[in-house]
Design brief:
Strand content: 5-15%
CATH class of the largest domain: Alpha Beta
CATH architecture of the largest domain: 3-Layer(aba) Sandwich
Radius of gyration: 27 Å
CATH topology of the largest domain: Rossmann fold
CATH superfamily of the largest domain: P-loop containing nucleotide triphosphate hydrolases
Number of helices: 13
Order of helices and strands: HHHHHHHEHEHHEHEHEH
Largest sheet: 5 strands, parallel
Strand order of the largest sheet: 2-3-4-1-5
Helix content: 55-70%
């Protein structure tokens, strides 16, 4: 698209002065603005497009030159783009809900290593391809911690997938029956952080145990994983089909591992008792 001489002059003035358009005489050509909007849409710069008019007026008021004006616009675009990327990673992770460590009651679990949890929130273990295992009875917040660590990884630019153990086995068996198992296994192997929740709540079949073992075997020293379980390690044989398979799995996932033991009374049970006492009072 070629511009008329007047339009070209308008663009040159705009380059030198971010608010040249608003200093021109009434009736100036709208071609530069239309062309600018078109280019910004083509370049996929929605924040730039939305903010350039507003920021130009602000910069005039603050005495900021054209370089500062452009720097402000690009910074806003970068911030907004990172926010959208984090939102996309959270959606792709398939979290059942979003949890943060700030809302976790560490005082309720005095035996939990808070310093280790905060260290894990930096997500460096993911880059080192290490695992995290959370052990404890139902209702103590294992899933909350796992979700919060998953969110922290998303915010660090890492890909995350959350799934319960029973759901993963179901997906694997379904993929095998539909002859797309290799594709699903490749997807699970590729993700930076795989979170498998509620391992031990439901016993697995021989087929399910073998398929789940294959997932962790393929991720061994290639990707980080978080597992939560209500059972101590010595009772994992009740979940898997054989002691041999259980031993092989533990050998892989505990080689590079951080173990968080969360032995305390159920948080949900304590809340229920508190409500009952409040009603009785």
């Amino acid at each position: 698209m070629l511009l008329s001489g007047h339009a070209a002059v308008d663009i040159r003035r705009a380059i030198g002065d971010p608010v040249a358009f608003w200093h021109e005489a009434p009736g100036m050509s709208e071609a530069p603005r239309i062309l600018l909007d078109h280019h910004l849409k083509s370049l996929k710069l929605p924040t730039f497009l939305r903010e350039y008019d507003k920021q130009a007026r602000i910069c005039v008021g603050d005495g900021i030159d054209h370089v500062g004006y452009l720097a402000r616009l690009t910074e806003l675009e970068m911030i907004d783009r990172e926010r959208r990327l984090v939102e996309r990673r959270i959606k792709q992770a398939r979290f059942p809900t979003v949890k943060q460590l700030e809302s976790f009651d560490f005082k309720a679990i005095p035996g939990l290593n808070k310093m280790l949890v905060l260290e894990l929130a930096r997500s460096e273990y993911v880059f080192r391809r290490e695992n995290v295992i959370l052990l404890g009875p139902s209702g103590v917040g294992k899933t909350h911690i796992a979700l919060a660590l998953g969110l922290a990884a998303c915010q660090k630019g890492l890909s995350v997938r959350f799934v319960t153990a029973s759901q993963m086995v179901h997906e694997l068996i379904e993929a095998r029956d539909e002859k797309r198992l290799l594709r699903l296994q490749a997807q699970l192997a590729k993700v930076s952080l795989l979170i498998v929740d509620e391992l031990g709540y439901v016993p697995l079949s021989q087929t399910g145990s073998e398929l789940l073992f294959e997932v962790f075997s393929q991720r061994y020293e290639r990707g980080a994983s978080i597992l939560t379980s209500n059972l101590p390690f010595q009772e994992w044989t009740s979940v898997f089909a054989s002691e041999r398979l259980t031993g092989a799995l533990l050998d892989r996932i505990t080689h590079h591992v951080h173990i968080l033991e969360m032995n305390a009374e159920s948080y949900r049970l304590r809340q229920s008792r508190s409500r009952q006492r409040a009603k009785a009072g």
